[in-house]
Amino acid sequence: MKIGVDLDGVVFDSEKEFRIYSEIYDIIELKQNSKINNKELRFQDRFNWTQKEIQGFLNKYHKPIILKSNYMPGAKEVLNLLKKDGHSLIVITARGGMNKDIIKLTEERFKQDGMDIFDKYYWATENKHEVCEKENIDIMIDDSYEKCKSISSSKIKTIYLKDAASYDLEENEYLKTLYNWGEIYRYIKENEIKK
After folding, report:
1. Fewest CB within a 10 Å sphere: which of 27, 106, 113, 137?
2. Where are the domains of the chain?
3. Which class is domain 2-13+70-194?
């Protein structure tokens, strides 16, 4: 099978780091409490920040968070199992859209960590459903409510990896909400049997 994989919040715990440091930035540096919606995934949508405040956060925290974020528990192991099982793994991520330098740093990290197992990369991708259609993706793994809705509405099986306060999605034959990489592996194996 062809499996599409998002990076932030799926392979790396960077989304958790962004949530932590956006809280600190809002309270300590901006000296305010401007949170408007804790269920939003992107920090830009969780706070009522001006463009200048968003840019200030990005300037200070974006690159350090990307560089220090850990792999999600089980991500490395399951991705390696999927590769060993003969699946094609394609990265489809928005990473690199805010800072192109992050692409090279991520590729270097994958090599250093023995994770250069991906067959193809789509960086700085906002319209993930288009890439999924173009690549004939069988299953896409993402943590974005909106991306999962969009991809699954294109009749592509989509795993909504839910790891934090976020919106619920109604499951259907193309959309499954899961909470960890062990569940993801089981789901893919079950779908492999059905194919």
Report:
1. 113
2. 2-13+70-194, 14-68
3. alpha beta
Burial of 74 (0-12, 13-18, 19+ CB in 10 A): middle
Question: What token pair was written down for 183?
Answer: 């569940």
Task: Give the H/E segment covering residue 189.
Answer: helix 181-194
Q: How far apart are CA 46 and CA 66, in angstroms?
A: 19
Cα–Cα dist 192/68, whole Å: 34
